[in-house]
């Protein structure tokens, strides 16, 4: 059956300041925002065409204030795919990725087929890098989750993340 458009949503989660908004806005609007308001939470939409199939992807850029855990649970419940973001320049931000990963599996009832990608940001800040490729590679291998190193500033590998997510969606959600 051919369709004009598929619709999927992904939720972007991670600690504050890691670059969730910069990554999202780079993908959706192809610009780099130096000073994006850290409190803004917004859903964006972009159409992606892969092998002649058009997908309208909603990307929810969260601004996770810890006290709103109920809201976060709601996002996770309704999310079909997840981008878990940490900064390559901030080792501590990896812990939140692990927390979120476990939270997602818990809220999704242990369903490990949920598309989840881990994204390290700020790849351009080479001299500030704190997380080695070996460290993160062994973690994601243990987790069984795809991993990308990106720079929203330089536009490195940002669209790969979302394009590859879109490619995974139909297998997981064949009826959408
Ligand atoms: P959020 O709180 O996770 O949404 O983080 P933001 O997207 O607002 O980014 C936090 C800060 O990191 C801002 O000053 C951004 O300009 C900066 N930033 C985000 N992504 C990159 C990147 O790829 N490279 C560099 N150099 N800075 C970045
Ligand atoms: Mg933000």
From TrEMBL:
**Which one of the record's GO molecular function terms can you name?**
GTPase activity
Q: Which residues cross the membrane?
A: none
Domain of life of the organism in this record? Eukaryota
Record carries keyword Hydrolase: yes
Q: Where in the cell is it found?
A: Cell membrane
Pfam families documented for this protein: Ras (PF00071)
Keyword Acetylation in record: no
Biological process terms from the Gene Ontology for this record are:
signal transduction
Q: Which UniProt keywords apply?
A: Cell membrane, GTP-binding, Hydrolase, Membrane, Nucleotide-binding
Q: Which SMART domains match?
A: RAB (SM00175), RAS (SM00173), RHO (SM00174)
Annotated SUPFAM superfamilies: P-loop containing nucleoside triphosphate hydrolases
Provide GO CC annotations from the record: plasma membrane
Where is the secretion signal located?
A: none
Membrane topology, as annotated, equals: Lipid-anchor
What Gene3D superfamilies does UniProt report for this protein, alphabetically? P-loop containing nucleotide triphosphate hydrolases (3.40.50.300)
Name the major location. membrane
Return the protein name.
Small monomeric GTPase
Source organism (scientific name): Paxillus involutus ATCC 200175
Query: What phylogenetic lineage does the species belong to?
Result: Eukaryota, Fungi, Dikarya, Basidiomycota, Agaricomycotina
């Amino acid at each position: 059956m051919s369709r004009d458009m598929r619709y999927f949503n992904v939720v972007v989660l991670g600690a504050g300041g890691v670059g969730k908004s910069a990554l999202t806005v780079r993908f959706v609007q192809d610009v780099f925002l130096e000073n994006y308001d850290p409190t803004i939470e917004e859903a964006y939409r972009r159409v992606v065409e892969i092998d002649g199939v058009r997908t309208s992807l909603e990307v929810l850029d969260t601004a996770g204030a810890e006290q709103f855990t109920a809201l976060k649970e709601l996002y996770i419940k309704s999310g079909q795919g997840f981008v878990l973001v940490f900064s390559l320049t901030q080792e501590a931000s990896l812990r939140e990725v692990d927390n979120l990963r476990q939270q997602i599996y818990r809220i999704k009832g242990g369903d490990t087929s949920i598309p989840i990608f881990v994204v390290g940001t700020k790849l351009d800040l080479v001299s500030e890098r704190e997380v080695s490729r070996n460290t993160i590679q062994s973690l994601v291998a243990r987790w069984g989750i795809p991993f990308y190193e990106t720079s929203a500033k330089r536009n490195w590998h940002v669209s790969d993340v979302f394009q590859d997510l879109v490619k995974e969606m139909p297998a997981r959600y064949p009826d959408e």
